[in-house]
């Protein structure tokens, strides 16, 4: 899998049926809006320019006000409503039934991603097959978050105690940036994720990898890291499937090394950043729920080595 | 320009015949000559600092509202500048995440609740009684009470900032973030502060409505009521029905935080979405609570400077009232991303579209007025035109939200931030500035430096658009609102840099505007009664108005009494009529609700410190409640009741009975 | 409807024209105040039904039984019945009967006080079963009955004040205006009591 580079996250480059609609709607609305603005602004500024030495006319001008203030707007608004109804219908259901289901659980401030059919669990990176409708079930473990992938689909909230069902289809392979859009506390700014759309075969092999238990440590450093991880404070919050580490507070780290970024897209996933994050994540993302880990340099190196082996 | 100015250099506004020639309306001069001296004695209030604390005069209270709201505007504006500085470059570290979150939460709360709404109250307080031709508000002491409570609740809310306990869950404070997940006492400040303020808004609204219903000058039938008065009355009715859901939500929030009730807690059978329904049931009407009176100002400014009556008056009035009603049926469009049913979404999309029709009516009524009149270019008119330009942009982006999937795309992004600043800044701040420039001579008795005023308009207008237009693009490019920082390379940097630059220009524009006002106060360019050749009754009073406003209550013969042949002369005609002059006692004229027929003089209270005492006791009660000293809080509330009883005992008038219930 | 306070002002004023005398400013203020208070109670009761009907399980959510109806039924009836002396009192006040007005006021006051006692007894009997923080029903129950009771306390204060002013004061020779306004508030309290009764007491048993 290629490393995540520049990610598309713009309304102007849609890659799915939902965003196709919002982008088309935007251009229609923009054209009409621009026309209305130009006319009204021209009339307002024109009056200041042209009517300074004019003669005052009487009259209520009710006909003009009715025509331009009610009749014409009503026609435009009716058309807008039609567009809205078309849009609501269009985004309600995918063109064919969804092939897979993904559960997304919002946490302060990261995304838990589960593939219930295969048992795969990951975080902040949602892999989907290209061109296939995917069912999403959104909920939250704490406060309200909002799921938004501008290039793929508009927002839907993740609400504690509720599950919102929706779907998405990505038409072009690639990586698309998403971000929490509902203010959710101190690190709302650092709660991004990505949707990675892959050809069906790639997706299947990725999913198979993610569903399997963690690799056993091979080198001495990895083994040491494994011991520190599973016996120390790491395991109280994090799960590594196939090991005694089964904490439920933080992201599942079973295949951490396959992810491109860390801390909900705050930093790249490389040795330096990973080490810095473990040692004191509060400097990188102040207020996040992971306390600084006072590990000795040797233990830290070992834990990094272990985590980097979790492919 | 029709401005006739008295030569500068006089240190007192002279009331002699010479002065009359220089700027006093002939009819008023005659009326003042007949009864002015006597009325001045009857209506005189205590001078000095004591008088400052005890006044019940609607003009002093109105001015106070404007100054205090302006002060909160400055505080919230400075917060905005700090936020813009933080966002001026990617990964900036001017403020921490915690501070940033407090800043935007308090910025929104302060701008909506402690600036925009009270600013409208200020204009309403000062000008509604003048425009309907009466001597004060219906309940002058309640009016003083409203102001003091507004001031103390604002100070209470802002005190949270130096205490490090500012609200940090955004101005709409969604649960459960504001509830079980809030770590500081910020949201308790928020809930209590808003409840406290609601007392002021409720009392003030009742006062304004009753004044407009019962105290219009004889002859001012409903068809002759100025649009501004209609707007204030509509706004006041809206507050009476919009504040209750907000109050209920805040009571629930405070109880959830303090007493561990389960209103918003899913595990206890509560519901998180309930907050959103209650909040937006207030929140959407609130947009029009802010914008309608501001539009009323525009409907005052444009006819004067187009030299003709407003076009399609009856449509404009209907549109104003219709907006007030429809605005209660659109709240769910703030919740399109919540995941409600398609049926609900379609219904509220349609309702959202309907509400733009009344706005269209008003827009084209103003344009038609200008195009059928002769436009006199003044600072006030420029701000009014600036309003039209910005408000139409905010309006068309508002219509876009009715297309539900598009709304879901841009809601909670910077696109929405751009939209509501175009609506609220364009739709309210611009008209308020128009109103300040228009009515400044009436409020202060001094003229403004017009040329400097126009420059201030230019800088404010450019600064505003430079700040907020780029936000549309940032939002479309995927930038969510309420993030304290962002990475470079996301395509947002350039738009944020532009916005930040614009915010400094805007700040400079406001400094310049403030400078124009200060300059006017320092100079002594005395303003005549009617500097602009205005159409409504406030221009028939002195600048600034005497304590009794009108020496003789005129008979109103048309919608534009200063432009007809009979209304002003009626002040001369009735100058020996005891019912119109009421020189013996502190009285105002009561008239019938619909057709403004005379019902007779009505006793008015004099200046008194009791409203201030009551407000202070209520403040104590709220502060103790915040501190968790519940017994002390109850005792202080007992003190409130005792003061209210004293207030009524002092004078068994009907107005106070309502107060004790509050 | 004529208002004596205003009427006398008119009589005193030699220049008073023969105009119809409309509602007083105080009447309008009370009507508007009752309107906004109605909206407050409506918002609270609507919240009750919102939570009631969005609850996925039983109601009350913890599965407790609904409150006993005996005390609240008596309390509500007492409060509603206390409108009768109030009505009588305001009729007599219109005829300038100070004593009659005072008696009617005291009658309503007695009803209000009895309501408060019964309400407190009801809370005491409910508390072991359902507290403020136990579940959403408990929160709603105490918040809604508490809000209404607080209003009745204020109403009782108003009645006491009115009775006192009718008893000792010269100005009470013109009692009609104040009595009418307090009476309006008092009737409103009864209407709210009925709505509260139906919502928090009766509806969970249905």
CATH class of chain C: Mainly Alpha
Biggest beta sheet attributes of chain B: 2 strands, antiparallel
Can you tell me the number of structural domains of chain C?
A: 1
Cα separation of the termini of chain C: 43 Å
- The number of helical runs of chain B is 22
CATH topology of the largest domain in chain B: Cytochrome C Oxidase, Chain A
Domain unit count of chain B: 3
> What is the second-level CATH architecture of chain C?
Up-down Bundle
Q: What is the gyration radius of chain B calculated from CA atoms?
A: 25 Å
**Approximately what portion of the residues of chain B adopt beta-strand conformation?**
under 5%
Largest sheet of chain C: none
Instruction: Quote the distance from N terminus to C terminus of chain B.
Output: 49 Å
* Average residue-wise pLDDT of chain C: 87
Work out the radius of gyration of chain C: 20 Å
Organism (chain A): Nocardioides eburneus
Keywords (chain A): Copper, Electron transport, Heme, Iron, Membrane, Metal-binding, Respiratory chain, Transmembrane, Transmembrane helix, Transport
Domain Cytochrome c (chain A): 220-311
Transmembrane segments (chain A): 25-51, 63-89
Descriptive terms for the model:
heterotrimer; A: 311 residues; alpha+beta; Immunoglobulin-like; 3 domains; 5-stranded mixed β-sheet; 3-stranded mixed β-sheet; 38% helix; B: 662 residues; mainly alpha; Cytochrome C Oxidase, Chain A; two-stranded antiparallel ribbon; 22 helices; 2 strands; globular; disordered N terminus; disordered C terminus; transport (chain A)
Report what the structure shows.
The complex is a heterotrimer of chains A (311), B (662) and C (206). Chain A has 311 residues and is α+β, with helices and mostly antiparallel strands. Helix content of chain A is 38%, strand content 20%. Chain A has helices at residues 17-50, 62-92, 200-211, 220-231, 234-237, 271-284, 297-308, and strands at 100-107, 110-115, 120-123, 125-129, 134-140, 145-149, 153-158, 164-168, 174-179, 192-198, 261-262, 267-268. The longest helix of chain A is centred in the first third of the chain and has 34 residues, at 17-50. In chain A, 47% of the residues are buried. Chain B has 662 residues and is mainly α. Chain B has three domains: 3-43 and 532-603, no CATH class; 48-523, Cytochrome c oxidase-like, subunit I domain (Cytochrome C Oxidase, Chain A), CATH 1.20.210; 610-661. Helix content of chain B is 65%, strand content 2%. Chain B has a two-stranded antiparallel ribbon. In chain B, helix 4 (58-86) runs antiparallel to helix 5 (97-132) and helix 21 (630-650) runs antiparallel to helix 22. Chain C has 206 residues and is an all-alpha fold. Chain C has one domain (26-205): Cytochrome c oxidase, subunit III, four-helix bundle (Four Helix Bundle (Hemerythrin (Met), subunit A)), CATH 1.20.120.80. Chain C is 74% helix and 0% strand. Chain C is built from seven helices and no strands. In chain C, helix 3 runs antiparallel to helix 7. The chains are: A alpha+beta (311), B mainly alpha (662), C mainly alpha (206). Chains in contact: A-B, B-C. Chains A and B meet through helix 1, helix 2 and strand 7 of A and helix 5, helix 9, helix 11, helix 12 and helix 13 of B. Chain C: This is cytochrome-c oxidase. Chain C: It is a multi-pass membrane protein.
